[in-house]
Amino acid sequence: MDSDGRRDRWDWDSPHCRAQLDEVFFRKNDYIQTGSPEHREFWAFFDRFQRFKTKKDMCGSVGARGRNGDRDEERKVKGKTAKVDLGLPVEYDARYRINVSVCTRDIEERVGKSEHRSRQRSSGPGDQEISDCRLALLHFLDFNQRQSFGKLAKLRREQKNLPIFQYQDKIVELVRRHPVVVVAGDTGCGKSTQVPQYLLSAGFDYIACTQPRRIACISLAKRVSFESLNQYGSKVGFQIRFETTRTIATKLLFLTEGLLLRQIQQDRTLAQYQVVIVDEVHERHLHCDFLLGVLRTLVAERPDLRLILMSATINIKLFSHYFSSAPVLQVPGRLFPIQVIYKPIPPEEQASRSEKLDPRPYLRILQGIDQRYPPEERGDLLLFLSGVAEISTIQEACQVYATHTQRWIVLPLHSTLSLAQQDKVFDISPPGVRKCIISTNIAETSVTIDGVRFVVDSGKVKEMSFDPKAKMQRLQEFWISRASSEQRKGRAGRTGPGVCYRLYAESDYDAFAPYPVPEIHRVALDSLILQMKSMGLGDPMSFVFIDPPPAASIQTAVTYLKEQGALDSHGELTSIGTLLSQLPVDVVIGKMLVLGSLFNLVEPVLTVAAALSVQSPFLRSSQNNPDCATARQPLHSNQGDPFTLLNTFNAWVEVKGERGGGSRKWCRRRGLEEQRLYEMVNLRRQFRDLLKSHSLLESEKNAASDGDRGQRRMRLTERKKLHQLKRDHEQQEGSKRKVLKLEEGHDGDMSSGSDTEETSRRKKDKDGPGQNMDIQEVKFKLRHNISELQEAVTVSQDMSSRHQALLKLLLCRGLYPQLAVPDEHNTNRKDSDQVFHTKNKQGVVIHPTSVFASDPEVLLVPDDGVSELGSDRRDSSKHQLLAFVTLLETNKPYLSNCVRVPALQALLLVANSMDSNADCARLVMDGWLEVELRQPEEASKLLSTALSLRGEWERLLLAQLGQSTEMRSAAQGVSRKTMEKLSDRLVRFLLYTEVSYSLRRLTAFQTQNLYIGPQPESELFQGKPPDLNSLFPGAEVKPHPIKGGLRVTSFFTYNCLADSKDLYSECLRTFWSCPNCDLYMPLTPLERMQHEASCRPAGEQQQTGEEPAEGKPGPSSVSSLSRVYHCDVCNKDLTLTSTEILKHKRQHK
Amino acid sequence: MEQTRQKTFTCQLCGLTSPYSYYGQKPPNTRAIVLLEECYVTKDPFSPDKEKFLVLGSTCSLCSMCVCVGSDCSLFYTKRFCMQCVNKHLDQFPHQIQTELAKKKERSKAAVS
């Protein structure tokens, strides 16, 4: 009775009843706990299981008789044949197939503690319910076991089916016996994932495996860790620029080539590794070629090191020979057969250079596919074109066709697209529709898309080359190599048999170069040479590269590094060079960082340096969108692109601080790729750490320990939550791909950018706010302290004009010699036709993405400031120059990332070579820019101010750098006060120099006849004894051996310009009074400057702070500048400053 | 170098290999769970939960061959039997199992042809 009553009340669907069972089966210490994901899964399973049982029970009543009959039969059979009695139970029960049993509370209670039992009996689940639940639990456990084991078995099957599998033992044996082994195998053979695992299981520890791409490091580490069932746990990791999963336990590390090189810089013998695998060596990236060279010497030094090169089956001999005929193991790839069809473009459809690409050949192929292959046969198309412009031309035409036929979704793929747009190529097309992916060579190696059946190969590629003469990068279109051609073809045969259409003739193919030109032959080698120097690899010319770069290329780099002050005249690293070699950025960016650390401009300089080192966050496709343009407007700075980037970053950080994840929307509205901003903030952090580790930045008071315990705890809890979110994300990652919609192709359309905004907004609304977790935001929060960041940003926001001027100077000095001068006729040209010149390249234009492209007026010399002097001389105090980050020639030579600076001031402060005429009114900077001042008075004054500023700046910089190389002394190398004084003077010089001058680019003829050349001393100085050294204390003044004139400092040569005007002006003395001392006498310009160099304003004298020595005390006497002078006339040794010597000598006349 | 090598389980029928961390009936950290046979056990690599286990295989109760739990290699029915022994003594198994195996054979034949 009682039990019946209870059963009535029992309801499997009631949460209360389930909770009671939870207390029996899923207690706090049980295998499955209440509230865990498995627990939820169990109850879902339970419902299914009950339904299944009910269904079976209903059929079961019919079949029951048959079952009994069978059993009788069974017994009979058994009696006849079986020799061994297996002792199996007579009645079948699925329960017997489960090899698990569970001890739960009810069993525990039955065994012992009976006092609980009676209480539970009165209410709660009865025996039947408990046994039902137990049965379901056993089946659930069994089900889970089967599922997991199924996955494992599948994984092992796949591994076994890889072509490389049968070579496992062979590979291990080769590696054991030879220091260097080459493993060559084509796409899909499994070398990248399997070889490291074979070595691990063979007992090798500490394996490094390099990859050319960061993304590959992450995905390989994930894959290998998964395939090895995480048995190595944290033992498989990756390390890329900003992220690492490496721990002390790591035994297999995937890392980028560049990073391994950095590690060699720190640990020359790579003692931390036992095995180094260099993957994808055939791609011949700059870092890879260099790495091979370094490893080649290392192998000789470390016989225990094992080196494995992995490559496609391209040019294998080259690698083997480079490593004294290392053994090669060739593994077949796994590609399905691919039919190659040559369809050369008929002459009438071939575009000439200036024309747009003719889409007809491409459309014919789409049509052909539609005719030949039924739409239900799946398979997408991948089309290779050379560049972005070509892609949008063909995309437009294909889109028209696609809209008409409703059988294609057209998707572009190139690196300047937003990541979300790039990601679309992985989505699935609806049934009956094919994707038509129009891509650059990015899809040749970097991006692998499954499901491609058709490949169309234009045979063209745009490749960067470097013109060492113009110091310019050039993006040119070339025919691809046979190796690339094969690689492109292979993309059609990854998932099934495919077709490759080549839009060139077979004879063209035969004429292609066998391999692509390795990067080392195409790019500027500055960073490479710098790194070689810092690794002590000796003369770069004699380094044994696998394929040595042209000597001219190395020479250009060495010269450039000397110009930049990274190498001294003997080609050895300077202290700044040592530092630059450790910064993973371009030399110019590195210089900016070092310079910025000196002044109080670290925060903005960090941001600008980071911003200039990543791709621009401004999406090209949004440029024509009026909404984006309006929203971007407040970010623009007409000071230059680095300032726009700075504003953008600062505004973004502010949005992040206020709205957190809302920054995504903010970015979208402005056509910004947020990913780039995340990269910037990471890079910025890395720069900061680097500067700190070189003591170029004071480590701030430990911010983490600030704040009370409560705050810290709160931050800790939040971090925990964030980590959980990150883990959750990692688990669901890549689980499902979206299905594309037919109209999807439209929003990539360049001309109608507003569509993009529209679609993406719609999409966003669709996702719930909760599901729409922004993993980047989570990572950001984990990595950065937003309030710290906001503080840093506030410093660089609302910059005073003084700070702005100083920052511009720093950028300019960093970017030097990358300067461009506006053409003198720009005033008469249209906005779009503004022309500029660099030292080595005439007629360059501003890239349309630059602020100066939309606002070129700010570069013009204002009319009111101009005074016309004669025909082509425009005097003004407002001339400006552009300092730029890149000069890249595509269809035209373009300058990008420019900042404008006041011309004369900037040149006086940064130019490596300044030459003057006798009265210093004519100056030639770096042998190509001529400055003429109207007032010689002003000219020499300016010059001497500049000389003293530069001297002081250099001194402080060296002190700062010196301090970083030595152990940090108690006293700061550069006092804040000295630094502030200098920055004050620099700002004054930059902002308040109101001198009228003309600025002109010298013609080739003028440059040829620029200098007077070496002169007999007697002639130059008219019989006067050239007691020049005494004139310039500290500086060794002597005639310049080539230019003539006097070399006053390393960068300034006086009176060497062939200036026909007056040869004797150097001797002309005019009366002059020194503002700092009471000197008043006639002096030549040179004498005047030299006096100024030694006579500091009273305030500064204390700064140098040395004991005044004996000798005449006077306002201009600074002991350090005095020297012993022997006067022949009086025949006395006098301790005098050079000015005093001068005065003294005059007495005798 | 050798000391770090893990104990490896290998199925003598299909050749599947995988490192295992425990052999026996009571895997660690499984609390109330008891296995009804001595098993080769590892941590379930497919579960995010670190404490979930996965049974790789065990020995056949008749011939003592080491087999994995995959349905092509072995079967558990109160005890572990390798497929060779199951086929040898098929008649002693209940008809549910017999029909199931027959069906599976047919299916795999269909897949091959």
UniProtKB/TrEMBL annotation, chain A:
> What does the UniProt keyword field contain?
ATP-binding, Helicase, Hydrolase, Nucleotide-binding
Database matches in Pfam families: DEAD (PF00270), HA2_C (PF21010), Helicase_C (PF00271), OB_NTP_bind (PF07717), WHD_HA2 (PF04408), zf-C2H2_DHX34 (PF24485)
Q: Where is this region: Disordered?
A: 719-773, 1091-1120
Name the UniProt record assigns to this protein: ATP-dependent RNA helicase DHX34
Q: Where is the composition biased (Basic and acidic residues)?
A: 719-749
> What superkingdom heads the lineage?
Eukaryota
Q: Name one GO molecular function term.
A: RNA binding
Domain Helicase ATP-binding: residue ranges: 172-332
Sequence ranges assigned to domain Helicase C-terminal in this UniProt record:
368-536
UniProtKB/TrEMBL annotation, chain B:
Q: Domain of life here?
A: Eukaryota
Boundaries of every Cysteine-rich DPF motif domain copy: 9-101
Family statement drawn from the similarity comment of this UniProt entry = Belongs to the CDPF1 family.
- What is the name of the protein in this document? Cysteine-rich DPF motif domain-containing protein 1
Species per Swiss-Prot/TrEMBL record: Solea senegalensis
